[in-house]
Amino acid sequence: MTTPLGRAELRTWIRMIWGIKALLNELDRQLRDQAGMSHDDYQILSQLHRAPKRTLRMTALARGVGFSTSRLSHAVSRMEEAGWIDRRPSTIDRRGTDASLTDLGLRVVEDASMGHLELVRRAVFETLGPERAGATADALDEIGRSAREEG
Q: CA–CA separation, 80 vs 102, rounded Å?
């Protein structure tokens, strides 16, 4: 039988989940209000913005934003309709599909970035300070690594 979490463990676990949820909800609200997109949309557009030639294979994009390929496909379909992303057969091999950021998508993500980054800076980095930000990044890396090993 699994041992229940101790008081300190339970406190940490609940606070971590609630803190992340509150931050993601606020990021989503800010992006919807100021840019007309969800935080998930912003993540996808940002990945493409940083990619060479603003293009990624759909499977790599899904991995980069932590989505299933099906979830990503639905999101990209919506953004294709908005004119933010184009999809084409891969230039490397025709079995895959590439997603590319359009010129309109580039303007949309760049316009959304200023408000988004101001909120991230305020909510995360000004709250933690430089020393705790580094320690937090290290701890989250370890948690992510452990979770991937479990899966």
A: 9
Structure tokens at 1: 């039988």
The CATH number covering residue 62 comes to 1.10.10.10
State the residue range of the domain holding 77: 7-115
Residue pair 16/8 in contact by the 8 Å Cβ criterion: no
Q: How many residues are given for the chain?
A: 151
Secondary structure E strands in 1-151: 55-57, 85-89, 97-101
pLDDT tens figures, 48-87? 999 999 999 999 999 999 999 999 999 999 999 999 999 9
Q: How far apart are CA 83 and CA 120, in angstroms?
A: 27
